[in-house]
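User: Before I run my own analysis I want an independent prediction to cross-check against. Here's the chain; please return only the structure tokens and, at the end, one sentence I can use as a sanity check.
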Amino acid sequence: MKAKSVIIIGAPRSGTNILRDVLTSFDGVGTWPCDEINYIWRRGNVRYPSDELPAKLATPAVRKYIRSKFKAIAETQGVEVVVEKTCANTLRVPFVESVVPEAKYIYIYRDGIDAMGSASLRWTAKLDIPYILEKVRFVPWIDLPYYGLRYLRARLYRLFSDEKRLAFWGPSLNSMQEILKNRSLNEVCALQWQRCVDSADVALSTMSDDKVIRVCYEDFVRNPCIEIERILSFMGCEVSSEEVTKSVAGVTSNSLGKGRKALGHKEVEHLESLVGESLKRYGYL
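Assistant: Structure tokens:
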């Protein structure tokens, strides 16, 4: 592929969306016109029981298919850099690396408690038809029946669930069914966040500095111009300070602490005891 590939790695509700949107606001940088492309990443492995795809599943056919989609975005949009963001990739960085070995990675992380508080809302979200229609365009046609039935099951489950939650949401862990059966919704969000950041951290730590840049969400929303300029330099993109300022006009720090406040002190203490080691590693405990 002639265009550069940049992969945003981050757990759900960690600022991956706003970061992608800011970066793709610049000329020459593009992405898919939908939220995530997990359907494309899972092509050829659709029935694998989780999103934790091992590198060995990146077969030549799988690699060829996924790379063709990156190439198509670059060519149809006429861009030099293709940015991709799918939160489930936190669980399978070696797989992603096998598919696009030339890619660079932006790893954005956030206070896990804030992320958990936000994620729990998505688990109980109502049906969003426009959002579904945006994503369905990028489902491989051969996989449509599988995903259609899976989505219907998730929605039916929400109707009868005591917690009024979906049967699944976000990155799927190897032990997801056991966790869902034995844990509260907040605990599910906590363990989901922990597995995502722990898996990503281990994999990305083995890569050289020119392949990975780490971004603290709190720093990003407090000083967006500084962080975006740092990221653009890493990507090898030259952009004027005026363009940077314009690109981050919608970035605010209003969401900081909201998750912790919504969960309440007692529940925060419980979740901190559950995933405290990971929170400490990132300086949030």
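Sanity check: The chain has a mean pLDDT of 92.
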